[in-house]
Write a structure and sequence with these properties.
Elements: H1 13-22, H2 26-31, H3 34-54, H4 61-64, H5 66-98
């Protein structure tokens, strides 16, 4: 079922998710959009610094750097979402290109 028109399978969304959790921006690098990952890292550092300056002195470490953790969580979700979309598009294209029997339903073109 591997036609010459199909591209190779994308990286598993779970691999991207794991990488994004372990090392910020690595999920975006795996997906081939390192600039997007660097943008997330930049805002992660900036917002962590800002919340550290405005947080009360008795706040926990997570509380003092909540802005950075927020962007970190959003970057994980973003990398996983991009990977899932790419994977779903690839599966859709493979199924469309590999169907020999059209049946009653015409594929989208």
């Amino acid at each position: 079922m591997n036609n010459s028109n199909t591209s190779p399978a994308p990286v598993s969304p779970y691999v991207v998710l794991g990488a994004a959790i372990v090392l910020p921006a690595s999920g975006h690098v795996i997906l081939g959009v390192p600039v997007r990952g660097l943008q997330f890292l930049f805002f992660m550092v900036i917002l962590a610094w800002v919340t550290a300056k405005i947080a009360p002195p008795h706040a926990s470490f997570v509380g003092r750097h909540a802005g950075g953790f927020l962007i970190y969580a959003l970057s994980i979700l973003d990398a996983y979402k991009l990977a899932r979309i790419r994977s779903a598009k690839w599966v859709h294209n493979v199924r469309r290109d590999g169907d020999d029997v059209a049946g009653d339903i015409e594929p989208h073109r």
